[in-house]
Write a structure and sequence with these properties.
heterodimer; A: 294 residues; 2% strand; B: 353 residues; mainly alpha; two-stranded antiparallel sheet
């Protein structure tokens, strides 16, 4: 039972990070109908910038985090403007390949600047494990959980009450109507990319604190796909719940099934789930069903 | 005697036979035969290194034609080609190394097995379109690769398997030159089959499905049948390419078939031209030679910038991504369209109006 709870807690924390990254993914899809295969590289770049600020320039963690987030936002803006703008309204394959090309460029830049070896964040959170009943949790997990929850609350409030958030929801609902109400749809797309870059950077920094930083961190970019599909590609609550479900299932698979098959199943599990969702409920838990007319 | 530099400015057919021909004009037909002859003769004069590169280009072209049938002609995006290549390579490896069958049985069997696996993962295509299908094929990639790397008893796990070169009687295709000819024959057959496929009912149905699947269904095309058929035909050629590649490099292992390979093949058909058989070949040559050219470029520059070779891997990725993005922005129909534009320009040259 302790083992189960331990796995459950790990799953929830990892799931929260997935939820955060999936949030950015869903946001881009919702506003501009684009699937972003470069999400993992956004995460990588944000993490490396934060890490470099801390280790090379001795900037305190919070300040470094803020600078990294601002950098990510600018990066998102610029990329949307230069790379993605020409593809609005183009066929799906153009959009997919454009973001795949983008991810290749970003990954290449990361390799050139930061190389391949794994780096670790300096210890920011205390190492003293916290005992909750029978289970033991490292503080970094609790902090991650806290940060993710705070971020999710902030974004929920942002979408519900702020002018920009409401404009974003309006654009997602009906671009033409939003445009005729005086909303700059281009601006909204840019903001969506900026937010996606920010949340990925936060997710990356948290994961980097847990596992260390290397180029394989960008694999999260692909794992976000099952999360987003499970929740429904255009549903923000779906992304959060999907993230938690996938995180927990992945962690439990790693704990219980991996010893049976000799490892590796943990990484594949989300995709197996993905296949089943696509077979039986292609629009996910909360997704909007598309109706097509000739 | 006509001026040989004057191009035909139109096609004037007087019977159906002319209209149905693949290469409609005598001059074009002659050009194709000359090109074929050039490619058949050139290994006699080239070095082994060049022939090896040409063989790799040709094998990539076979796989790319396969993918183009699915993505370019039928409009079903697949990000799982890498794994399907792996299925082809491993099937051939298992049949030849473990069961001792001849390559000439193993290669078609590899195609058929890959076609079955491809058809299986094509089943969701009835309900899924575009983005969702792309993601489903991505899942296929991950799952197939996992099975390959874990099924130790059959596939040798992460260590991979060693293959031998094919034999014909007492002749072994050991030299680069002989393997080039083997690849060349398969490539020509693949290209001619595909060109002909799109003159048939099945091919036309594929194109109708791509252009608007709901409309195609209204017109009496069985969507499920043709979508799955597209997956099957496409995967067959990808499997053949996988088997050829496996016997050429003489080794198969899971990391050779990662998602990077899938993306590379998508880039090939995109750069070459979606929905173009010759485009697949141009694209295969372009993408296969890109890292080679880049490496020699870096070696040339290493006198001036000695640090350049250290960042070669990163640079490859950057250039690869840039090529994809720039082609998408400036010439979405790829090299095939560029070549066509050049030809069209000279059709009316020097009076282009």
């Amino acid at each position: 039972m302790t083992f189960f709870l331990q796995m459950l807690v790990t799953g929830i924390v990892v799931g929260c990070v997935y939820a955060l990254v999936a949030l950015g993914f869903v946001l881009i899809y919702k506003s501009s109908d684009a699937i972003n295969f470069a999400q993992g590289e956004f995460l990588l770049i944000g993490t490396y910038v934060c890490l470099t600020l801390i280790t090379a320039y001795n900037i305190p963690f919070i300040a470094a985090l803020l600078i990294a987030l601002i950098f990510s936002a600018v990066l998102g803006f610029v990329i949307e403007r230069i790379v993605l703008r020409p593809f609005i309204g183009e066929p799906v394959i153009s959009m997919i390949m454009a973001t795949i090309g983008l991810s290749s460029v970003l990954a290449g830049i990361v390799h050139i600047i930061w190389g391949h070896e794994t780096r670790v964040f300096p210890k920011i959170f205390s190492e003293q494990p916290v005992n909750l009943g029978e289970i033991v949790i490292a503080p970094v997990y609790l902090w991650s959980l806290l940060i993710v929850v705070v971020m999710l609350v902030i974004f929920t409030l942002f979408f519900k009450y702020s002018k920009l958030g409401i404009a974003m929801r309006a654009t997602a609902d009906d671009q033409q109507a939003a445009m005729s109400m005086g909303i700059s749809v281009k601006m909204i797309f840019a903001v969506a990319w900026a937010i996606a870059a920010i949340v990925s950077a936060v997710g990356g920094i948290l994961l980097g604190n847990i596992n260390g930083v290397n180029a394989s961190l960008s694999a999260i970019g692909l794992k976000v796909l099952p999360v987003a599909i499970l929740g429904g590609l255009d549903s923000i609550p779906g992304a959060i719940i999907g993230g938690l479900i996938i995180g927990i299932l992945e962690s439990l698979t790693g704990g219980y099934l991996d010893p049976l098959v000799g490892g590796g199943l943990k990484e594949v599990m989300p995709f197996v789930i993905l296949v089943f969702i696509l077979m039986f409920k292609p629009y996910g838990l909360f997704g909007k069903k598309e109706i097509e007319r000739v | 005697m006509r001026n040989p530099f004057v191009m035909d400015c139109g096609e004037f057919h007087v019977n159906y036979k002319q209209d149905l021909a693949i290469w409609k004009i005598t001059r074009v037909r002659m050009r194709v035969f000359i090109l074929l002859a050039v490619f058949a003769v050139f290994p006699m004069f080239a070095s082994d290194y060049i022939i090896g590169l040409a063989t790799l280009c040709g094998i990539a072209a076979i796989g790319a034609i396969g993918l183009n049938i699915l993505t370019g002609f039928t409009g079903q995006i697949s990000i799982g080609v890498g794994a399907f290549l792996g299925v082809g390579g491993y099937t051939s490896a298992i049949l030849t190394a473990k069961l001792g069958l001849s390559f000439w049985i193993a290669m078609p069997t590899a195609g058929i097995v890959t076609a079955i696996v491809g058809g299986l993962f094509g089943l969701p295509s009835l309900r899924l379109k575009g983005l969702y299908l792309a993601i489903a094929t991505l899942a296929a990639q991950v799952i197939i690769l996992f099975v390959i790397s874990r099924w130790d008893a059959l596939t040798g796990g992460t260590a991979g398997m060693v293959l031998s070169r094919p034999e014909l009687g007492s002749f072994v295709f050991y030299s680069e030159r002989s393997y080039y000819y083997l690849m060349f024959v398969v490539l020509v057959i693949t290209a001619i089959f595909t060109l002909n496929l799109f003159r048939s009912r099945v091919g036309r149905a594929f194109i109708a499905v791509r252009d608007r699947d709901v409309a195609a269904e209204v017109m009496g095309i069985d969507l499920f049948k043709y979508k799955v058929l597209a997956f099957i035909v496409s995967s067959f050629f990808v499997g053949i390419a996988g088997a050829l590649l496996g016997h050429y490099t003489m080794v198969v292992s899971p990391e050779l078939y990662s998602i990077t390979v899938s993306i590379e093949y998508l880039a090939i058909i995109l750069v070459g031209g979606l929905g173009s058989v010759f485009g697949s070949i141009y694209g295969a040559v372009f993408i296969t030679l890109l890292p080679v050219v880049l490496r020699s470029g870096v070696e040339l520059m290493s006198g001036v910038f000695p640090d350049l070779s250290a960042v070669l891997i990163g640079m490859k990725e950057v250039v690869f991504g840039l090529v994809i993005i720039l082609f998408l922005i400036y010439e979405p129909q790829g090299l095939a369209k560029i070549w066509k534009n050049i030809k069209d320009y000279f059709k009316l040259w020097p009076f282009s109006y």
